[in-house]
Amino acid sequence: MPEAKYLLVGSSHAALEALRSIRHMDPEGSMAMITRDAHLPYSPTILPYVVSGRSKPDAVLLRDQAFFEANHCAFVPNAIATGLNAKTRTVTLESGETWRFERLLIGTGAAPAIPPVKGLDSVKFHVLRSLDDAKALRTAMGGARHAVVLGAGLVGLHAAETMAEAGLSVSVVEMQAHVLPGYFDPKASERIEGAFDDHGVKLFLSCKVVAVEPEDGGHSCLVHLEDSRALKADLLLVATGVKPVTGWLEGSGVQVDKGVLVDETMRTTAPDVWAAGDVAQAMDFHTGKTALIGIIPTAVDQGRIAGAGMASDPGVKSYPGGIPVNTYRFFGRVALSIGQAAARDGVEVAESDADGYRRLVLEDNRLVGYASVDQPFDVGIMGELIRRKLDLSACKDAFLAKPVETGRRIMSEQWR
């Protein structure tokens, strides 16, 4: 039975940062990273560029084999975890192999969430979460004319843009009233929607897919909408969100809600088991409640804290809570959001349409959210203003008029 002092299940940003933290404290303790993927580590955020051809599959890897050898860590691909026994400290793989560990990181990330649409399982469709998914989608584009994308989130819109630029007729179906509803308010989304409209992408908003029907012997399909319209597709992409990969933890003693529940040091409810990244349900900075925040900065922070705890680092710091941060580039333009960019009750909202669009959300004269389209945006500065909960009442007018310049001045004074 193979064994490791530190067993890392998963191979993306959270696991890699945990590895780094562990090796900072313990250079020699035995370590293994097992992953369901067939490839060396890569970032899911780079996949749209593989689909478009701007990046070659072999050029998007985060680490090479030499990295693992230098860090004395066994890298085990094609290893799908199917069970965890926290009492015996063992992880079982789909192959039947069992790994024994002293300390475990759950970094299994998330997988595409497939909606319960009638007939969807009877047609060929694509998802975009892995490098193999990206390569398959790029190949399919070469023989397609009409593409339908289910979902107007980041993955769906990235793919829609790539397919439109490749000359395909593209339709995007979204249940919500505007695109990217998890990141932007309707006014910001309207600008993004306009860019897609200008490039010939048809957006079907506030629409629900009720059935999918195969056509032409399965070479194409009809996507039936709730309002009786039907869209023809010879390429169907399902991009309706993701869900944490937690099924293998059933009966393990690790408590799971929407994701794996963790405390302020990323410990789970099982002894000597930590979780980090898209699979972890950790504290949200704004609400103080647990939430899933599937972005790279969060995964890196959580992985670093989890790794420090696994290596018994006396300087391990508590997780301060996740703040959503998103950068979205589309048709040569850029949209950004951080924090609670969509207004809620009891907050002050300031908007500007001059030379682009920006939205600042304040509560008790403290910044809690910022979004912009086609305007300068310093993510680092705005993040610090939010996390430090700085009172902006003395300079609020200047901040609302020139948020980037004023924010930089405020933080330069804080850092002195």
From TrEMBL:
GO terms for molecular function: oxidoreductase activity. The keyword Flavoprotein applies. Transmembrane segments: none annotated. Keywords: FAD, Flavoprotein. The keyword Flavoprotein applies. Residues 5-303 form the FAD/NAD(P)-binding domain. Gene3D superfamilies: FAD/NAD(P)-binding domain. Its cofactor is FAD. NCBIfam families: PhenlGlyoxDHPadH (NF045765). PANTHER family: NITRITE REDUCTASE [NAD(P)H], PYRIDINE NUCLEOTIDE-DISULFIDE OXIDOREDUCTASE DOMAIN-CONTAINING. Belongs to the FAD-dependent oxidoreductase family. This is Phenylglyoxylate dehydrogenase.
